[in-house]
Amino acid sequence: MSVFYEFEDVDAFTTGTIGRPGSRVFYLQARHGKQRVAVKCEKQQVSAIAEYLRRVLNDLPPPDDRPVSGALELIEPVHEAFVLGPIGLGYDRTSDRLVVQLEEFRVVDESDDAGADDDEASDGDGHIRLYVTRGQAASFCERAAQVVAAGRPDCQWCGFPIDPDGHPCPRMN
Asked: Do 169 and 158 touch, CB atoms closer than 8 A?
């Protein structure tokens, strides 16, 4: 069964984690009214989305409004719709909204018939399309920076993350 959501108006677009540093699970979450959808993702994907949105926002007028900080919290329980794969990002000039398209990660089975129709293979894929305001995008970028930075600190010698229980640094043998 495929998952498809399209939010032309979004009450909130945010990111958050569940778990302690070193074993956190990252999520993207979108909400409109009582409807909400979450996608499990990687920290690098959150950073990449925020980086792209920042670049686009630099070329646009500053946002007129910002969501209240409470709207940026991840609402639990989180029921993930799918694991994030390809990401599409853009800007729609007619609506003055940034477009965020999230697609399900799919493992390609190379043993399948090479002549299979690509449309048939994608029928079960999850897909979410969001139209976010400049203010929501700017707030997402700020929230993403906070969430990513809240992880484990990097070791000054090797650059690997330091676990709360200690760190066997390969450079300090």
From this structure: yes
